Amino acid sequence: MLVADGIHWFRVKIPVGPKHGNIYLLEDSDGPVLIDAGFPSDEVWTELTAQMSRVGYAPRDIVTVIGTHEHQDHAGASARLRELFGTTVWLHESAFLNTNRFANNRDYWSPTGRQWWSRIGLPADELALMEQDFNNTPPIEPFEYDRGLTEGEILTIGGHDYQVIWTPGHSEAHICLYDMRRRILFSGDHVLPKITPHIARDHATRPNPLQDYKRSLSKVARLPLDLVLPGHYRPFKNGTGRIAEIQQHHEERMRAVEQTLGHKGRTAWEITWDVFGDNPSLVDRQLACSETIANLYYLAACGRVDIEEGDPVTLYSRSGKLTGYIGSRCPPVEAPART
Ligand SMILES: [Zn+2]
User: Fold this and answer.
1) Is there a single domain that holds both residue 157 and residue 216?
2) How many Å lie between the centroid of ligand 1 and the Cα of residue 17?
3) Within a domain: residue 253?
4) How far, in Å, from the CA of 73 to the mean position of ligand 1?
């Protein structure tokens, strides 16, 4: 479907998350450019090929894939295009760090990863289930890319200028692309219409991803927006209103996490149960836990939570230095050092 002059929207099924993902094709005189290429599966490939043919293109025509971020359901299929047709793949430059850090998804459950999750306070059976689930997931090989994009860079595609906005938070290498003249934002998973993007803190992330995310939201909140083209669900118009809703959601979630804390240390697993309750899905419990931890590290950076990293578990408590801070706004803190 044509969503703006020279921009086609394709919707494909994916086996993870919201079950559908978006791929955008931008026409250009040198050949089409894709914003995201979808999950690396035969099903997505077939769907993409069929939808491209309806607008007169084939996968071999694609000159470049720009990945909004390094997650497999967005940039994963770029590997096949690159291998078969020499399509160039562009991602934010920090994706180089990620690729080096995790050669493939097997490396996530490394000794460091196992130690991280055991210190969260998971019961032994939950930890075993998580590890088993991870080992049953087919390995995903890392994809390579050709060019690292930088903050503020302007990409001219089809006669339109798109500014690269680095928006870490949901992932380290997340970018949005902004067409200032037409007020169009390709938002990837940074701003979604129906769900709030998952913000995780674990052994594999930057030190304070929630702070990254809030800062990244402020960046796009300032932009005049007529059309948002997200990575999932339908394109939508009221981008600024949606960003305000997401900001509000995170304030409430942070308050909910803070209110579970006392001066006696508790594990992240216990706090997650208080905030999110029980959930029958193992993956959802894991996501809830890593998001709770993101809140705890954010609050710790604000001086409102003490973290006692210990063996066998890490404990979180309300900071002994502060009282009566529940619900107050977090003071600004310096950006954490890059790791
Ligand atoms: Zn993602």
Assistant:
1) yes
2) 9
3) no
4) 7
Q: Which residues fall within 8 angstroms of residue 311, CB to CB, at 6 or more apart? A: 119
The two three-digit tokens of residue 207, written as one number: 């030190």
Question: Domain residues for 32?
Answer: 2-101+140-247
Ligand 1: centre distance to CA 199 (Å): 10
CA distance 2 to 227: 13
CA of 98 to the centre of ligand 1 (A): 14
Helix (H) or strand (E) holding 12: strand 7-13
Same structural domain, 273 and 151 = no
Rounded to the nearest angstrom, the distance between the alpha carbon of 266 and the centre of ligand 1 is 30
Distance 307 CA to ligand 1 centre (A): 28
Characterize 103-138 residue by residue with b for buried, 16 or more Cβ atoms within 10 angstroms of its Cβ, and e for exposed.
eeeeebbeeebbebbebbbbeeebbeebeeebeeee
Locus of tokens 């493939």: 104
Residues 185 and 92 in one domain: yes
Q: Regarding beta strands 154-157 and 147-149, do their DSSP bridges make them parallel or antiparallel, or are they unpaired? A: unpaired
Are residue 13 and residue 113 in the same domain, yes or no?
A: no
- Ligand 1 centroid vs 193 CA: distance in angstroms? 14
Tens of pLDDT, residue by residue over 116-170, are 888 999 888 988 888 888 777 766 666 778 999 999 999 999 999 999 999 999 9
| Residue 44 falls inside a structural domain | yes
* 190 belongs to a structural domain: yes
38: left (phi over 0), alpha (psi -120 to 50) or beta: left
> Are 166 and 46 in a shared domain?
yes
**Would you place residue 334 in the very low, low, confident or very high pLDDT band (cuts 50, 70, 90)?**
very low
Same domain, 23 and 91: yes
Total number of residues shown for the chain: 339
Complex-level ipTM beyond the 0.90 threshold: yes
